[in-house]
Amino acid sequence: MIEVKNITKRYGSLTVLRDFSVDFDESGVTVILGPSGTGKSTLLRCINGLESIETGDILVNGLSVLEKRNLRSIRLNCGMVFQSTILFPHLNVLENLILSPMKLLGVKRSEAEEQARYYLAKVGLASKEEARHNELSGGEQQRIAIARAMIMNPKALLLDEITSALDPEMSVEVLRLLEKLASDGVTMLIVTHELSFAQKVARRVLFLEGGSLIADASNEVFFNDLKFNNERIARFLQHIN
Ligand code: ADP
Ligand code: MG
């Protein structure tokens, strides 16, 4: 579903991704691990067409990010959630959720509200539809952000360290939600430093360092073998535990 083909991504003289290739098919959770500054966010942003690439190509459902006219469809196919989320402060939660379906997909208000309530229930926040941004905890804001991405019915969710600005308790509530979505079969690419969560939900684990893919393994191989036997990975995992 997502094909990253020999891409190079530079910021000025800094090469972040170097002749980088990876494919994602349509099922299950892929967790992306790796040290800070290694290109994980850049990779997700390139897939979503938020960053341009210097060489290579990325296809999402066969559509290239190099063509401007494909970007809208690519972004609809890949819903992205970031480290922190700002909901429109003058709108309540329900209004925040129905905005994109109405504006981008032409869904009628009544139908959009019905969908919004469905996804709010899914993320456990049915009671918050009238709340505003400043009345929600950080964890609740992130769960709303997930609902806001899911209401667009994307083929995959790209989640970039969405718990790293949260205190441990709120992280747990967001990670629990992701576990539930994973068991519902939602396709996700998740950048995280939460190892035990990664081990629980990932079907596949990628390890990036210095703009290259150091490992691309099944959960079992990564956590039973590479975790101990790949020196670089072992060192990284010890460091974050
Ligand atoms: P990660 O998500 O793995 O921590 P990033 O993809 O955010 O890493 O960043 C990779 C490298 O690119 C880092 O060295 C970072 O400083 C640099 N970088 C990221 N975004 C920009 C930008 N907009 N302009 C210049 N350099 C950037
Ligand atoms: Mg990052």
TrEMBL record:
Residues 2-235 form the ABC transporter domain. SMART domains: AAA. InterPro entries: AAA+_ATPase, ABC_ATPase_HisP-typ, ABC_transporter-like_ATP-bd, ABC_transporter-like_CS, MetN_ABC_transporter-like, P-loop_NTPase. It holds the Pfam family ABC_tran. The keyword Phosphoprotein does not apply. Transmembrane segments: none annotated. One of its GO terms (molecular function) is ABC-type amino acid transporter activity. It comes from the Bacteria. Keywords: ATP-binding, Nucleotide-binding, Transport. Belongs to the ABC transporter superfamily. This is Amino acid ABC transporter ATP-binding protein. It comes from Breznakiella homolactica.
